[in-house]
Every structure is written in structure tokens, then in C-alpha cells.
Amino acid sequence: MPRSAVSAALRNNASIFAALGDETRLALLAELTKGEPQSIARLTEGTRLTRQAITKHLRVLEGVGVVRSVRSGRESLFELQPKPLVDARTYLDHVSHQWDTALARLKAMVEAG
Asked: Partners of 70 in the beta sheet?
């Protein structure tokens, strides 16, 4: 993979991880994994947050591509977009493999030494 593509993938993953670094946004994603698009009013139910606060968090998630809004009449419904999360998971699996390999080499050196 060209260096520029790797750099772009790293920036994209960093943005996703930054967006997921907030417990409110993680809770919103958990709600959206239930399958059906949900309104801001519905996502606000049972929380102590305002609609404006929920909207702000949803816009952050939308900005990194993990949710999208669709118009339904006068309201916006938000739905999960799993592909960026799958891509981030693939990246984490790659990093995990690198660490496993490095630790195996260290173990072999220690045991040989």
C-alpha cells in the first residue's frame, strides 16, 4: 500500500477513535445498533441530555461516517453505518497481530538468552 494511502487510513482511523472516545457517543452507537433509524427525540429519552447535546454528538459521529441522517418528514432519523467501524476493527486486528509478533520475538530472545 502506498505511503499516502497508509497515512490517509491512519488519519481516518484516528478520527473514528477520537469520536468513539466519548461515553455519550458510545451509548448513542449502542442504541443505533438495535437496527432501526432513530430520531433525536427518541435517542434523548431516558437520558439527562438535551436534544441539542444529542445532536452535537450525533454530528460528530456523522462527521466520521459511523452514522448518517435521513429525512423522514420533518425530522431527521439517524442510523448506524458499520463499514467505518469494521475498518477500524481491521486496523486494531492488524496492530494486535504486530504486538503478538513482537512479543513472540521478545519471548524467544529471552528464552534463548
From this structure: 77
Q: Is residue 48 part of a domain?
A: yes
Pairwise CA distance, residues 19 & 81, whole Å: 14
Q: Is the pTM of this model over 0.85?
A: no
Question: What is the DSSP secondary-structure string of 31-57?
Answer: HHTTSS-EEHHHHHTTSS--HHHHHHH
Total number of domains in the chain = 1
**By percentage, how much of the chain surpasses pLDDT 70?**
96
CA 39 to chain centre: 20
Residue 27 lies inside a defined structural domain of this protein: yes
Mean pLDDT, rounded, for 71-87: 93
Q: Kindly state the cell numbers that stand for 10.
A: 491512519
pLDDT of residue 13: 86
Phi, psi of 34, deg, nearest 5: -70, -10
Helix (H, G, I), strand (E, B) or coil at 108: helix
Domain, as residue range, for 64: 3-81
